Amino acid sequence: MEILITLCARGGSKGIPGKNIRMINGKPLIALTINIAKTFALKHNADIALSTDSQEIKNTAGLFGVTSNYYRPLALSGDQAGKLDTITDLLRFEELQRNKKYDYVLDLDITSPLRNIQDLEEAFLKLQLDENAWNIFSVNVANRNPYFNMVEQQPDGYYGLIKTGSFLTRQSAPHVYDLNASFYFFRRSFFDLEPRSTINSRSLIYVMPHICFDLDHPIDFDFMEYLMTTNKLGFEL
Q1: What does R_g of the chain's alpha carbons equal in angstroms?
Q2: CATH number for the domain including 95?
Q3: What are phi and psi of 74, to 5 degrees?
Q4: Selection from 46, 32, 220, 187 nearest residue 115 by Cα
Q5: Distance (Å, rounded) from C-alpha 194 to C-alpha 231?
Q6: What sign results for the dihedral spanned by CA atoms 194, 197, 198, 204?
Q7: Residue 234 lies in a domain
């Protein structure tokens, strides 16, 4: 079984400049993801590949044992570039360079590093056991529920629930989940689909039993670092 682990780290973040290599708890952010990628790769004899448009990110990744001859094309380096297109281009490059065809792809998001090896192993097994599934991605139980306490503007200008139903409490409404962007497993056949979407008719989810969130704003770094330094995560990275 051949597995490719993809690490996609664009250098041009506008929300948090340089966030992929910004220091957190004494290490560049990307190091947290590289460490778990190496742990998973060692167990499964997987390959690790980096996609970036930044030489600084490439140099930092190299310090932690991940090197690459791949250079992300300009067309995949802008704000409008899709993650799936980025993974697909890297996958095809690695298959050509390594002269092999992968069975699975694991994408680890640099800016959502609160995952552990148990998360990856359990999600991977769940995907393997469902032969009809194309992919699985990590989520958390949502704090808010669109059936009960989320509204949007209607065509007439007034506001109503995003999803309707006869529910009197949030607890009685259907379960909903937040995508935390931490990791995605794909079968290789998924990348031959046209069109393809991460959320599709054969997607599975892995519900994380612990906190996980993406770093979108500068204050998110402060919050995550606080959780790490005070041992309040409740699990080992």
Answers
A1: 19
A2: 3.90.550.10
A3: -60, -35
A4: 32
A5: 44
A6: negative
A7: no
Cα separation of 114 and 137, whole Å?
A: 14
Report whether 58 contacts 34 (CB < 8 A).
no
Residue 158 within a domain: no
Q: Name the nearest CA neighbour of 47 among 27, 69, 30.
A: 69
List 48's β-bridge partners, or say none.
Answer: 5
**Domain residues for 223?**
3-141+178-229
Kindly state whether residue 156 falls inside one of the protein's structural domains.
no
* pLDDT tens readout for residues 24-48: 999 999 999 999 999 999 999 999 9
Q: Is residue 15 part of a domain?
A: yes
**Domain total for the chain?**
1
- Does the model's pTM come out above 0.90? yes
Are the C-beta atoms of residues 106 and 142 closer than 8 Å to each other? no
**Number of other CB atoms surrounding residue 34 within 10 Å:** 25
